[in-house]
Structures are given as C-alpha cells and as structure tokens.
Write a structure and sequence with these properties.
The chain contains 1 helix and no strands. It is rod-shaped.
Length: about 35
C-alpha cells in the first residue's frame, strides 16, 4: 500500500511538471501582451 501511495505522488508530480511545461509558452505570451503596453 505504501508503494501505491508513492506511485500516486510520482504521477502527481509528473503531471504537475507536464502542465507547467505546457503552460510556459502561454505565460510567455501573456507577459509579451502585457509588456506591449
């Protein structure tokens, strides 16, 4: 059961990394839009 918990945490961490990587271009785009002003 403990191993199962560790696996879930690893999946959650990996998901967080993937989400962050995918949202990086979006954040850069938003920053560009804000700095145009």
């Amino acid at each position: 059961m403990e191993g199962n918990k560790e696996e879930e945490n690893a999946k959650r961490t990996w998901t967080g990394i993937v989400v962050m990587e995918r949202s990086l271009p979006l954040l850069e785009y938003i920053l560009d839009m804000l700095s145009v002003d």
